């Protein structure tokens, strides 16, 4: 059976990002430099979950040629249940999650309105503090089969990220305004028009 590679591509609904390493690569467990993020998908987002399941199924079909013509019994799939695997992390409650990575830096942008053609226009995000663990985004993913040292499964490739909403920082990071709102600082002139942290 021939499968069109577009069958393995998914654009998520609004999801939350965690463990964000998208502006600079970070070394993974195999010693490879990868751009990556965890993506938390609400269990209520049935449409995104349906699309992911279909894309994973398509990647499994593509993988049969890598796996000797059959599906391995211990096949690893990317989508995991946050309630089961991260019961002590409230951010993962009520969510499925997956880890997506890429050898290349993903496109990172935000929507800035509609153009004359009616299509959404985007602005590239270059400030690494603007997309962080806890913000919300729509993410373009591509699912693909792998066979590495006896580990067989389907992984999520990270294509592009469009930030759609701010959120509370994950991982215990606090907000600078909250931390220092009541602190005294000597010899500082504050111009309300230039409060760059607001």
TrEMBL record:
<dbReference type="InterPro" id="IPR022595">
    <property type="entry name" value="Enc34_ssDNA-bd"/>
</dbReference>
<protein>
    <submittedName>
        <fullName>DUF2815 family protein</fullName>
    </submittedName>
</protein>
<dbReference type="InterPro" id="IPR012340">
    <property type="entry name" value="NA-bd_OB-fold"/>
</dbReference>
<dbReference type="Pfam" id="PF10991">
    <property type="entry name" value="Enc34_ssDNA-bd"/>
</dbReference>
């Amino acid at each position: 059976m021939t499968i069109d590679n577009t069958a393995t591509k998914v654009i998520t609904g609004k999801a939350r990002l965690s463990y964000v390493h998208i502006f600079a690569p970070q070394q993974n467990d195999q010693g490879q430099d990868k751009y990556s993020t965890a993506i938390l998908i609400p269990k209520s987002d049935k449409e995104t979950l349906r699309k992911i399941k279909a894309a994973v199924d398509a990647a499994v079909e593509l993988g049969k040629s890598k796996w000797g013509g059959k599906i391995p019994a211990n096949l690893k799939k990317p989508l995991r249940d946050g309630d089961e695997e991260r019961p002590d992390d409230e951010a993962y409650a009520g969510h499925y999650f997956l880890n997506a990575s890429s050898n290349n830096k993903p496109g990172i942008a935000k929507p800035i309105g509609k153009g004359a053609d009616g299509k959404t226009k985007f602005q590239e995000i270059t400030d690494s503090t603007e997309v962080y663990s806890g913000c919300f985004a729509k993410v373009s993913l591509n699912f693909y089969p792998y066979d590495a040292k006896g580990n067989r499964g389907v992984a999520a490739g990270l294509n592009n990220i469009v930030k759609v909403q701010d959120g509370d920082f994950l991982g215990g990071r606090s907000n600078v305004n909250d931390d220092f709102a009541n602190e005294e600082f000597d010899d500082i002139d504050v111009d309300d028009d230039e409060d760059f942290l607001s």
